[in-house]
Structures are given as C-alpha cells and as structure tokens.
C-alpha cells in the first residue's frame, strides 16, 4: 500500500494530481501541502512511505526536501526537464513531467512499490537527526564518514556514499555513535568517525577509505589513542 504525501506550491497542480490519485485503489493520500516548511513542521506526525515532490518551489525546492526523506520513495514532478539529472542523483524512483497523465502516474507508483518492497526486504536501518534542513532521516548503510564542522564544533558533517553530505546540528560524535549500530562505525580521531565498510587500508597514522561513487580515495588521520580500538573493530 502506498501512503503518499503530495507537495506542490501550485494549488491547481496539487488539486489535479490529488484527483488523479483518488483513482488508484492501492494509493492513500495521507495529506497534501503547498508549502515545504509546513510539511516539514508536521513530518514527525505523518505516516507515509512515498512523496510526490514538485521540484521548483520558492524558499526550499523539492531537491532539498528529498534529501531529508532518505527512507521514502520519492517521485519528483516538474514542468522543467533540466532538473532530471539532479533528481536521479538523489535516487528518486521516478520523475514525471507536468501536465500529469494517469498512465504515467501509474508507472511511477509501480516503481515506488517495487522500491518499497526492496527496501523492506533488505532491512535498511534509518536514524533521524536534526540538521540544517530540519529533521533528516538517514540510511545508516549509506554513511561513509562523519566529521566535526570547522565553523562550529557542535555541528557534524555526515558524508554519504553517494557524494552528498548532511549537516547534523548540535550533536556530539559520542551521541551519534550511541545511535549507530555497534560494530559498523569507529572513531579514529577527535574529529572523525568512519564506517568500517569503506576502509580499504590503514597505516599507523592514516585510514584510507574507498567510496564507490567517489573517484578519489579519502584519507583520514588515525590518532594513537584510537588506534587499538580501530584495529580491534576491523578484526571483529
């Protein structure tokens, strides 16, 4: 069952797509919004697994909203075809052009159901953190490494395997480690936590990470106080 949120700042488009969705028996429209900030303010109280997002919106566009919905099936909608590449860089399940057609919308929902089924089968774990874009859901297995922000040590950059990064607000590395699965991540210095799965090699001073979607290796400092724990974690 698809439980869908609709987000489009243009009321005629929002009304039209809502009317189309009512013809699909396996689709429940949980709520419609014409303002991304209002949607994000209510996100914690909404039970949904899919979101149809207009990309071109004032204030906060659909691409920015999608980065917060990492555990949801995202269907982008727009009248502007130039956003297609950016949409698929965010692993959207589909990208539909306005004006909407019922058969094309059905295809998008079919893809969303397939994505949701695959996500459920693989048992993806998600954490939720406060970020500079509001409450952000993060797929744990997509985290590459975490770093203390230079501009404010209370903030942490979470670097993802797809090249994106999320700025987590007002949280310590120890607090992040406490909510991450045991045995998958390790602190290697005062500034960095690394996902053990991306470690390709290490020396007495450095940890080298190979991240699939990044062309260059990432080299992080391995500090002496953390070395034994890091090595033991790799050998578990």
UniProtKB/TrEMBL annotation:
Location of the Response regulatory domain: 3-113
SMART domains assigned to the protein according to its UniProt record, in alphabetical order: LytTR (SM00850), REC (SM00448)
Coiled coil, from the record: none
Keyword flag rRNA-binding: no
Modified residues (4-aspartylphosphate): 54
Keywords annotated in UniProt: DNA-binding, Phosphoprotein, Transcription, Transcription regulation, Two-component regulatory system
Keyword Zinc: no
PANTHER family on file: REGULATOR OF RPOS (PTHR48111), TWO-COMPONENT RESPONSE REGULATOR ORR33 (PTHR48111:SF1)
Official protein name in the record: LytR/AlgR family response regulator transcription factor
Biological source species: Sphingobacterium anhuiense
């Amino acid at each position: 069952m698809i439980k869908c949120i609709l987000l489009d700042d243009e009321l005629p488009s929002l009304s039209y797509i809502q009317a189309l969705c009512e013809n699909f028996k396996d689709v429940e429209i949980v709520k419609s919004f014409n303002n991304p900030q209002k949607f994000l303010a209510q996100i914690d109280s909404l039970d949904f697994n899919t979101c149809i997002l207009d990309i071109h919106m004032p204030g906060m566009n659909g691409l920015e909203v999608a980065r917060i919905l990492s555990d949801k099936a995202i269907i982008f909608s727009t009248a502007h075809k130039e956003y297609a590449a950016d949409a698929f860089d965010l692993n959207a399940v589909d990208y539909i052009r306005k004006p909407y057609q019922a058969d094309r919308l059905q295809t998008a929902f079919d893809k969303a159901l397939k994505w949701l089924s695959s996500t459920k089968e693989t048992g993806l774990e998600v954490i939720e953190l406060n970020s500079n874009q509001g409450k952000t859901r993060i797929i744990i297995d997509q985290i590459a490494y975490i770093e203390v922000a230079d501009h404010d040590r209370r903030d942490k950059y979470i670097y993802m395997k797809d090249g994106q990064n999320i700025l987590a607000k007002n949280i310590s590395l120890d607090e992040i480690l406490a909510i991450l699965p045991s045995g998958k991540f390790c602190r290697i210095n005062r500034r960095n936590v690394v996902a053990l799965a991306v470690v390709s090699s290490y020396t007495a001073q450095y940890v080298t990470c190979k991240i699939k979607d990044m062309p260059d290796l990432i080299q992080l400092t391995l500090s002496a106080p953390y070395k034994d724990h890091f090595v033991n974690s790799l050998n578990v």
